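Exercise 7. Predict the structure of RNA methyltransferase, TrmA family from Lentilactobacillus senioris DSM 24302 = JCM 17472.
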Amino acid sequence: MKKQIPVVKNTDYDVTIEDLSYQGLGVAKIDNFPIFIENALPGEEVKIKVIKTKSSFAFGKVVAFKTTSPNRVELVDKAYTQTGIATLQHLAYPAQLEFKQHQVAMDFHKLGLDVEVEPTLGMDDPTHYRNKAQVPVRLINGRLETGFYRKHSHDLVPIEDFYIQDKEIDKAIIVVRDLLRTFHVAPYDEVHHKGVVRNIMVRRGYYSHQMMIVLVTRAKKIPHAEEIVAGILAKLPEVKSVIQNVNSAKTNALMGPVNNVLAGADVITDTLLGLNFAISATSFYQVNPVQTEKLYQLAIDKAELKKDDVVVDAYCGIGTISLAVAQHVKKVYGVEIVDQAVEDAKHNAKLNNIRNVDFVAAKAEEQMAKWQSDGLKPDVVFVDPPRKGLDSTLIDSVAEMNPKKVVYVSCNPATLARDVQLFAEKGYQVNQPIQPVDQFPQTIHVESVTVLERTTD
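Solution. The predicted structure, encoded as tokens:
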């Protein structure tokens, strides 16, 4: 027998918003049955229409506001909500920071972990902060367009001002788009796997102002490539690198394995915490340089490093944390699964004349186990994993290495809390407040720095 639920699809209801979900959706309840509603804030009384029902929850949309929250601000553009570019644009920035602090605290509370969470470190200007864009190129109503996909779809919403990206990057995308239109370059057709240009990627150094343009193509050749490149260089004097990335597979992966330099160098450079970094088309480099400097400096300060310390940096990427740390310690060992990132890290060490670092290309959990079996005894371990968090075998290896401290830079508070619980079983505790950092203003995402200290010898 089908479970009876207290709401009916396409029916209107009067509700009061009780909470914000971790996805930034307003939460209302009818007979204790949760309904998730876009563009709705706690305390607001709204008329909603139920648009989708499941056995244990439903989704609704606002039909009319009866009362509005004092934390509500006017939408800049509804497209930013539709696409997920700025899911929190309707929430005043101080309230966004509180929301993120609350999210971190709640993920620990759910696991029964008693920790203190500091107020989120925000930005003076929480817009136009991204130093990288990667936008699809598609045919809309017979015209080549750039923009972003509507949430949970591959329907392109044409956008020119992306709100959270560097304004110069937005301008560059328009320049490239218009050149592709001028020379009648066919945009990618996802359904039939035809067309030439799939995506445009733009990187811009925050301090250097060097710009890289990457044309991600299905085809190996770009019609009128020379004229297009000449147009890019003429209209965008900051451009130091134009690259074609060939992604001929029928896949959702954004980039392919082949990069061809069409003009300039194969990298651009920028500085972070006073160090120089070469950034390639495929490099992982934090997208918010202002907040990254706060995040990494915080991690270094909280580690309380000493000159004779040996440090391991798991998930070292192109060496940003490793090289910043190396200035304060005796030796740093870094591991990263992406071969190109490790090559970039080694290059960046030479670029900065830093010799007390060793970088290895391997799975972090496997390399940590190898180092542990080889007898490596670090004083501090830094981890900066992807959203899925740490593999339990890596936590085992770290515990066997027995460092005094583990400094955990997290982009997902749920997996952070899970991993802290696993570390607690190995004799490591959080003895100081967790510090959230707003790396992605206007979105639901938050980074944080947590220090775990060994409680047993």
